[in-house]
Each structure stands twice: as C-alpha cells, then as structure tokens.
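Hi W.,

Here's what went into the run:
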Amino acid sequence: MRISIEEVEHVAQLAHLKFGQDEIAAMARELDAILEHVQKLQELDVEGVAPTTHAVPVICPLADDEPAASLPRQAVVANAPDTLDGLVRVPKFIDDSGAGLT
Amino acid sequence: MNDELLAKYESVIGLEVHVQLKTDTKMFSRSRAAFGQEPNTLTDPVVLALPGALPVVNRKAVEYGIKIALATHSTIHEMSRFARKHYFYPDLPKGYQISQYEQPLATGGRVEIWHEDRRSEIALTRIHLEEDSGKNFHREGVDESLVDYNRAGVALAEIVSEPDFRSPEQAVAYLRALRQLVRYLGICDGNMEEGSLRCDANVSIRPRGQEKLGTKTELKNLNSFKAVKLALHYEIERHVALIEQGGEVVQSTLLWDAAAGQTRVIRTKEEAHDYRYFPEPDLPVLEVPRPWIDEVAAHLEELPLDRRQRFVDQYGLTDYDAGVLTDEWNLAEYFEEVVRLGGDPKKAANWIQTELLRLLKEDGRSIDEQPMSPKVLADLLARMASGELTGRNAKVVGERMYQTGRTVDEVREELGIRPPERDESVVEAVCRQVVDAHPDETARYRDGNKRLFGFFVGQVMKQDRNQDPKLVSKVLKRVLEG
Amino acid sequence: MDIWQLGLASQVEHVRTKAVSAEDVASAYFERIEAVDDRIGSYLRLDREGAMAQARMVDEQVRAGRDPGPLAGACIALKDIFVTKGVETTCGSKILEGFVPPYESTVSERLKAAGAVILGKANMDEFAMGSSTEHSAYRICRNPWDLDRVPGGSSGGSAAAVAAGLCGVAMGTDTGGSIRQPAALCGVTGLRPTYGRVSRYGMIAFASSLDQGGPMGRSAEDCALVLEAIAGRDPADSTSLDEPVGRYQEACRTGFKGMCVGIPKEYFREGLDPQVEAAVRRGIETLAANGATIKEVSLPHTEYAIAAYYIISPAEASSNLARYDGVRYGYRARDASDLMDMYCRSRAEGFGSEVKRRIMLGTYVLSAGYYDAYYGRAQKVRTLIADDFRKAFEDCDVMVTPTSPVTAFKLGSRMSDPLQMYLADMYTISCNLAGLTGMSIPCGMDGQGLPIGMQVLAPALGEERLFRVAAGYQRLTDWHRRWPEVAQAQEAE
Ligand SMILES: [Mg+2]
Ligand SMILES: [Zn+2]
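Here's what came out:
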C-alpha cells in the first residue's frame, strides 16, 4: 500500500472531511490505486525542467485602487446558514492566534 | 529572576511585523477598505469567497510594498509570485490566504535604529504582500462566535526580520523605527491598538559565547510596544528558568495574555499547521519592472533619519532637537510649516519642545488633536521676536491659544494683556517713582551694591506687568546711575 | 422544419429580421423541454421568467429598429457552474443547494448583453468532476442517442440538451475534456478555447489553471458565433488574455485547403475502440481528399498526461473547494457539537463521493513532505507535455485525434472504478495541460448507432484554425446534422 489508513485519516483531518470506518478503508484502496498509477511520473527525468504553473504565460494585471460598490449587507445575510444582527454566526471559535493567522 | 543568572545567556529575537496598507480598496478586490464601519458592509464576491470569484491585484498595494522595500534597502524582485496558504478559520473566507511564499516581493534589506544612543542595523529576511482575515468576536449572552468580513482581504505587507535583536528593548526600538518609517512613507497609520500594525516575535536563548542557536518559541498577539517588551522579558526568563532547571525549551507557539502578564502555549511543533502552500493559479507572475521601481524611488518620501540630518544642516538645530522633532512625521511637518510661515527655526524648535510637547503630554493628545495651527504659532513667535509680547506673557498667551484655538489678539484681549509700554518717558516716570520710594536701597546701590538692581526691576515690574523688561532695565540703569 | 431544428446562427438571423420573434423561439424550446427532458435530465433548473423577459426585450429592440445584438434571441443552456444573479446555482452539488448568487458570471453577462436568452441551468457532474454526469447530486442525465447510456461529462447536461434540441447552444466547461468528451458522446460540436480566452469570473472553479468555458452547439459555425460574443479580456479575471478576439465566423467560411494536419501516433494505440479509430481515420481521409496535407507527428510524453492531470487537478480542486465550509453560504450540517464538527460534517454530508475522493487526493499530494514528489514533479511533466506540442506544431497547423477512446458507455458501468473513469479522458487532457485549444466534431456512428467524435487541436489562440477545419469538414459531411430519435419523438406524437 502506498497510503496507510492512518495517513488517510490524517489527510481527512487536513481536508476537514469526516469518514466512517468502512469509508476510510475504501478511500485508502481507491487512493492507493490512483497513487499507483501516478507513480508513472517517477520514471521521467525532470532534472532542470521548469515547472508550468500557468498554461499560457501572462503577466499579472494590476487594478487601480478605486473602490467599487460593496454588496449590500443583506446579500451577506441572505445566503449564510446562520446570522445574528448582520453578522455571520458559527459554533464558538476561539482564535488561538490572537489576530488571525495572517 | 536575578540578573546574574540572566546575564549568563544571550537572547536572540526576530520579529514578523504585519503592516496594514492604507489603500482605499482591498489587496485582491475593489471592495472598500476602511476601519470602524458597520459589520459586513465592506464586502463583494471576492471578499466573501463566493463561488466563481477571482482575485485582482491592487496596484497601489504593490507600490506601497515597493516603497517599504526601497526605504529598507531591500532587493526588489522583478518577478515575484503569489501563493495559497491553507487553513480553515471562519474569518478566512476562501479557506486559504493569498500570500507570497517562495518568491516574495523583496528580500534582504535593513532598518537603521537608534538604541541606547547607538546606531545599529537590523537585517531583514523578506517583505511580502498578502491579505488580512476578517474578524471574529464574541458577544455577551451569545454562545456562538460572530464573524464580520469588513477586514477580510485588506492589504498587508509582512516584514520579517533576521533574528538580530539581543534584547526586548532593542526589538521595541526596531518596532518603533518601523512604525515611524511606514508613517513617514504614508502607507500605514501605525496604530497598534486598532491592529494596523501587528507584531509576532521569535525568541530563543543561548549561553553567551555559544554559536549554535537555542530552540525558539513564537509569540503571538503582541499588540502594543509594552506587550512586545513584557512578553519577550517573560519568555526569556521562562527559557532561562527551564534550562537552569535542567529542562529544555519546546518549540511551540504561544499567546501573550496581557491581562495575566504571561505567555500561554497554544500549539506545539507536532500540532503545527500544514499550510499546503502552492503557487496561486488565479494570479500570474507579479512583474515589478525596473522603471516602475525607479519611478517610485524618485518620488519616495524623505526618510526619518534623512530628515533629522536635514534639520541639523538646514535649521542649525542640535542633533538631539532634530531627533525629537522628526520622531513623528506629523510633528516634523508641523515644525516645518511654522518655519515656512516665518517662525525662527531655533525659537520654533524651542517653543515646540518646551511648551507644545509638554502640553500635549499633559493632555495625552497627539499633534493632530490640538487646535493650535502652525499659522497661529508662527504669529506668536513673531510677536515675541518683535518684543510685542514678553516671554512671560507669550507663555501665558500660548497656553491659552493651545486650549482655545484662538489667535494671539483674541487671547490677549481676553486676558487683558496689552503690548508693553514703549514710551521711555512713561517708563522713566515709573522708575523715578520707585527710586524715590526706596531711598535706603538707592543709597546702597549707589555705594556699589549692584546686586540690588534686580530688586529695583522687580519693583518697577510690579507696578505694571506689561512692561518690556529690556526697556525697564535700560531706563532704570539711567535713573539709578544718572 | 421547426424553428428549433434550425441552427443557432439561422435562428438569430430569423429573429433579427423579424421572421420570428425571440419570444416564440424561447417558447418553442420550453415546450420541447417540457415534453422531452423528463426522459433525459439535461436541465437542473429552468429560468422561464428571466428567459421570457429577455426574449421580450430583444423583440422590443427589433421592433424599435435598434440592434438587438449578435446573439439576438439565441436560446442558451448554461452549465450550472456559471453563477447567475438571482437564479439558484449549485454546480451539481448538494453543498450549494439553495445558493442564490448576488452576482453574475462574465460569460452569462456577455451572452445576455449580446441578446441571448438563458433558458436554464444544465446538469453536470458535481463540481465538474466526472466524465459521465453520473456524479450530479440532483438527477441522472441520459444520452439522447441511447437512454441507458451516459452523455459523457462533466458538461453532460449541456451536450445532451444540444443533442436533443433543447437549446440552441449550451455553455460547458472543460478542465480535462469536459466539453469535448460529452460533445463526442452526444454527437455535437464542442469547443474548448485556449486557457484565458474566455473569462473564468463567475465560473465556479474546479482546477484553476486548467478550467476554461466554451460553447457546445450543433455546428462549428454556431460555436463561432457564440465565442465571438464571449471571448476577450476581462479585468475581473487576472488570467484572461489581453489579445484581440479572432474572426471565428469568417474562419468558418475559409475552409482548410492547404492546411497541414498532424496525426499524433501515440493517440492511435491500445485502448482505442476499433470503430472509433475507423471513423476518425475516415474523417482524416475526408480532410486529405479535400486539400489538407496529412503528416504523422509524435507527442512522446502522452502516456504521462493522465498521471500529471490527476495530481494537478485534485490539488487545485482541494484548495478551491476549501471555501465550502458551511459558514457563509450553502449547506451546513445540523446540531454540530463544535466548529470542527460543523466543518467536517457539513463537508462530508454536502460533497459527493467523487468530490471527496479528489479533495483527499489533492490534499495528500500537497501535504508536508509530498509536494515535490507529486505536485512539483507533475508541474514539470506538464512542461514536457507542452514542449512536445510546441515541437509538433512546428510541423503542422492542427492535429486530429479521437476525442474519446470509446463511444457512450452504459450508465453505472464505470462508477465502481474511478481510475477506469479517469482513463476516458486520455485524449483530451493534454490539451488542458499544455494550454491549447481543442474541438470535438461528430465524424461517424458506431454499430449501435452511437456518435463518434473527432478531436481537432491547435496551439494557444489557434481557434481560427479549428474553425477552418471543423466548419470545412461539416460542409462535406452530415454527421452533425443528425437527430436522435428522442428529439424527433415530439413530432411523431
Ligand atoms: Mg508570518
Ligand atoms: Zn502574514
């Protein structure tokens, strides 16, 4: 096996997904088959080859610092599953880094 | 902890500073960026990470990044790249932050600081651009967390220093210098309470003389100069105590709890985030061509240390006075405006330092929060120079002007302060009256007790406080000796 | 002949010349959808109100003598991956059930500005992940040529709608073949434009560096008409190309005489259905017989494309799908015990199995310690694949290959083996990795009466070359003019 049950569980945690025990086993098998196939890439010598990150190379366009209209607050509230006084409500979250992980 | 024990170790500190850029719109969208607005009123599809929304880079934010890089002598890379940094937080809408990783905007560079009357240079590792998160908070009586996305996407520059600090005080001096710098550049208001300047620190200790670095810990939430100093002292002592007791420092992230005055572990190395960085496919390579850098450099604001030197050269101020006046960009601007409006540089510098700064300090105000415009101060100085206001009256009048925002004439009227008597015959009449009223003192003076001159001046001034002391001296001398 | 049987270009001409009203065209389509789509499942949602209002506006403009736009009255199905202001957009996923976007995609905005009428949102594989549309969270979509078979995917709803005459043109998206493969399996013409040619703003992201939207229609000419209206730089998409839009309709009239057609030998090997191979070879002969030069070329890294693709696309997808967290919109699991539980269950319950599989795969290949071995290496292999094409295109103007190795397969037949499903994309994937443009056109039928598609590839911004070949070919053949029985059913009744 290229990927263990424990690794699948760790990846599920990273991805914020939840699986039942039998789902985990099935997932491990499926991922294993795919990883087995992609091993093919190891055959190639990629020494000195530059990675392609953009299909067609372009330079990043820059926009002027001119404000456009904001969405109405109602638009934020309308789609959120739970809100209070125009704020989005989520189960209690203690930001353990003080000011976000910026 | 005793100083002897502490002295055995050298502390090694590095800072990561987040500078909120004062752009009108956000880093990757044209949603307005502003502080203190109604929650969730500054959003758009990009800020909220609605399905299908895409980022577009703010040119001004890049320009501001170039400014910081130039001001810190960093190497600006003509090609840099954005990357995605992943983690799940309710205030991070996309589930990743767009930042820069392997190819930041600038690397290297240095910041000159004055600490303990010595000039030193702090090396920078990198400067990169990224976006801020939203804000998550709690409300009395509500069990859940509430999220406001107004701050989400605001442009940030992150400035990472090398571990070049050897004391918390030196780190604070650097942070002050950085704050001064970004305010001079006009790219950030530097308000630590409002979070527009935020600081994280890395700290480790090692026995003096040892080359190898100790295990470091990372401190978060240092949102004032005081917090930086206290937290670093606390953490250094904690490291020393651990090692002295035969233990070891565990690599971890800690939060500074200002109320409790201590640090608290929030994550160890094992629990560290796996950010899964990869190049941002929605943004092509960021190009900063040489001509753009040259253009920004040509219009770069005067830097604090340059201005300080110029104040010495141009206005003949002492280095100390120049340092005080250039500490804050606004104050330096104020001073130069007073001079431009005719104020004598040395007198203006003197007045600002002895009177204005004292008054501001007493009130806890900043230079922008008082009503005395450069124009009225220049006027006050001119009236002093012409002798129209005595030094003593000028001080009284000036203080009142500071309190009320009124002009010299308005205050003089209010306090009943006339211009000093100019007619020598009138002054002479008063002098003669005083001399006549004190025959004993007059005799002793004329016998050679010249120290009594001050007594006579005092007596004359007592008759009328509005007199010019210089004129009084001149006339009195004539009357006594004539 | 009924109005719906005419091509899009001809319908627009009728509307512009007042021969028929836009309202009548739209009504005709809605009638057909009502009669036929129960059996097919090409639409997830209709926007009758919005469509009729737009049609009336077009008619008013025509009556007032104003230019109603180059797509006046063109009835279009939008893959449900394009966000539409005020009209529910789900991307085929339960996690977006009930999501009503407060903004409009650039593609749909440009379509409407050109006078097009959006009939509704087409069925698709959830988040465009799949090659059969069986991964739609809402309903099965069937191939109009055989209702027991898949229409291909992920733009299966779009392809089926075009094949069954339930819209004039449909918009699809193509990340690894999702326009061309269903076009081939449903016997329609589908164009995947060059990456960056059509704005991705408001097009829900699957794999950002590979995604591209494009038209699917009954002919190259119809696709050209639509592409001219939607292509071009969009300031809201930083990767959109700042290059002039080509003269695609004119290219359709130019023909392919004198062009050199490359045949990549690696595309005609094991795994290719002999009937598909035969049909494509006949197509090539038709080109050769009518003035094209044929030349064998080689793309040596072809066999690595699927591996590279199944690292890069899930990696980007795992990142793009992090925003579906139950916080700001979409599905949120009930009664979560805490925030982590809310996240994990909302995503576990909201996403389907294929999407979760790709998120897992993508998260894994990006996780600490694996980046270089997987993602980093795949990006380098991508360079090798692009270099293959650069070299090969030095010797030819376009390439012709099969689009799919097989014709439409039976519903359910590949669901249990994801890897087998991935291999369906073997001929289309390289185009996306290398940033090319490609088109699939009908070139035959197999023994069971299922359509066969021929793929034409061109270098970046080579759309005009594709239109020259495709439209020229379609003038010589009638494969693209055939209707499945289900489309004719209404007339028979
Ligand atoms: Mg950092
Ligand atoms: Zn940061």
